[in-house]
Amino acid sequence: MFKKFKVVLKSISDERGSLIVLDRYENLTFDLKRAYYIYGTQKNITRGFHAHRKLTQLAICLNGSVKLMLDDGFHKENFLLTKKDEALMVAPLIWHEMYDFSKDCILLVLANDYYKESDYIRDYNKFLSLANPQNS
Ligand code: TYD
Fold first, then answer.
1. Are 60 and 9 in contact (CB under 8 A)?
2. Residue 126 phi, psi (nearest 5)
3. What is the number of the ligand 1 atom nearest to the C-alpha of 49?
4. For residue range 74-93, what is the model confidence (pLDDT) as tens digits?
5. Which residue's CA lies nearest to atom 19 of ligand 1?
6. Closest of 61, 85, 59 to residue 70, by C-alpha
7. Which protein residue's CA is at the shortest distance from atom 13 of ligand 1?
8. CB 45, CB 70: distance < 8 Å
9. Residues with CB under 6 A from ligand 1
10. For the chain, counts of helices (H) and of strands (E)
């Protein structure tokens, strides 16, 4: 059900190597305002455990591998990110958890807005009540 959140990026490969393109018209469906990357994650560390009210993000594993669990309040799905030409969209009101980072994982995240703590929903029950108002 979250399959639509996977985005295949344009990859141009030749004998010299590969080049991957993201642009506003092809695969970056939002205005990019912020990028950050996560690396050096220690063994057995999990991150995330929140949803955003409005923020849309695109996660790309540039090196190594990581697993992401997406939860829309009704269904949960786990994704393994390991390909440089594959991105995962994390839409608003999607609870997400990141785990099983490889030691060499570099996870790039592109976002359509600046960092705002007020956009975070860090309480799972609060998330459920927003994602599925019938829960509250
Ligand atoms: P957080 O989003 O909670 O990380 P994760 O979901 O991976 O566990 O962010 C970790 C810390 O970094 C938190 O104190 C907020 C800060 N931060 C910024 O200052 N700017 C940013 O753009 C991001 C993503 C986080």
1. yes
2. -65, -45
3. 6
4. 999 999 999 999 999 999 99
5. 115
6. 59
7. 117
8. no
9. 34, 36, 38, 47-48, 50, 115
10. 1, 12
pTM higher than the cut 0.85: yes
Q: Do you know the residue count of the chain?
A: 136
Q: Give the list of residues 6+ apart from residue 52 with CB closer than 8 angstroms, or none.
A: 90, 92, 93, 94, 119, 120, 121
Catalytic sites, residue numbers: 50
Distance in Å, CA 116 to ligand 1 centroid: 9
Q: How far apart are CA 81 and CA 108, in angstroms?
A: 11
Do 90 and 53 touch, CB atoms closer than 8 A?
no
The H or E element spanning position 47 is: strand 47-52
Q: Whose CA is nearest to atom 20 of ligand 1?
A: 115
CA 61 to chain CA centroid, Å, is 9
Query: How many Å lie between the centroid of ligand 1 and the Cα of residue 16?
Result: 36
Per DSSP, 133 falls in state G
The predicted-structure confidence for 92-132, as pLDDT tens digits, reads as follows 999 999 999 999 999 999 999 999 999 999 999 999 999 98
